[in-house]
Beta-xylanase (Marivirga lumbricoides), 373 residues
Amino acid sequence: MFTNIKKINSLAIGLLCAGSLYFTQCSSVSEEKEQSANGLHEYYSGYFPIGVAVSPRALEDSAQSALILREFNSMTPENVMKAGPIHPSPNQYNWGPADAVSYYAKENDLKLRGHALVWHQQYPGWFFKDENGDQISKDTLYARMKSHITEVVNRYKDVIYAWDVVNEAVSDNSDFVYRQESPYYQIAGEEYLAKAFEFAHAADPQAKLFYNDYNAARPEKVDRIYTLVKKLKDAGVPIHGVGIQGHWSIFEPSEKDLRYAIDKYASLGLDVQITELDVSIYPWEKERRAMKPGESDEFTNELEEKQLKQYDMFFRVFRDYKETLTGVTFWNISDQYTWLDTYPVEGRKNYPLLFDQELKPKKAYYKVTSFDQ
Ligand code: GLA
């Protein structure tokens, strides 16, 4: 097994040096640590693929690349396929970074999830405006969605097996199902969701199409996500799965709530994936704020223990649902870099992943990999 991993690594790195123009430096296998014969994805080979959100820069880094190839068998581009980065102006697509990720996935035989076609954030400024800066009509919106979705899905259909088609369409306000402030919703109402799935399905009839959201294991929000997805399903819209993002913490969700969520989505006959897993050491907050005086960001033994228990419970539940879950993807590689270092509190270090700042497995890693297979 280990020889195989080494072989794949050398092949990958050879290709990085020779291949894509996007990569600026060659990586070296020599720094690779001969750490363990088994990666996460091998422990979980009888269960589900184990994925990770990546940037092209991380793939260029030999240590991170070695870790990815050892531990994971699936990837999601963290940012580079979002509408803002990939389609910055009406007639310009920025394919380079997304090509680099898809090339790496193909060459190393990793599964690839596409993320995300329709989202109310990280979209290009021009997308909802006409040449006078006024809001576009519904017909123009659909024409733009169709062209964007068709181009992007088509380009990667040889490698991407599943897409997050619509991201985070459910409101943070429990009085509403749909996010009222989304420009898609303001222009087209709830119908835009069906259109997005139809365009994606037409572009790649083989791709598994997901609705993806956060706080998707809080029972009250589970029920609203369920309402939205059921409506699409009942209307015959080509939707195949629900993505539970999994930006969780040592405080939530409880085992009961997690099981409730998975059961509820699965009851619609859809695939369920955990698409963006990290376990913050802080309670969930949404609004950006500065660090408070005296606020600590130390990863104490006590916090590490709580995180380990939470990870242990999550993976025990995931294993119980191996017939339902078709993927578990971590949001970032290691505690060396996580989006949670800057969000929602700029400069407050977080430690949400299974690998530490030196890319070494944390105690939680050993916990989630010790079970009877
Ligand atoms: C959401 C999005 C992701 C990413 C994270 C933060 O969950 O779906 O694409 O932006 O927020 O990194």
Notes: The longest strand covers residues 271-280. Residues 1-36 have pLDDT under 50 and may be disordered. The beta strands are 50-54, 74-77, 111-119, 160-167, 208-213, 241-244, 247-249, 271-280, 325-330.
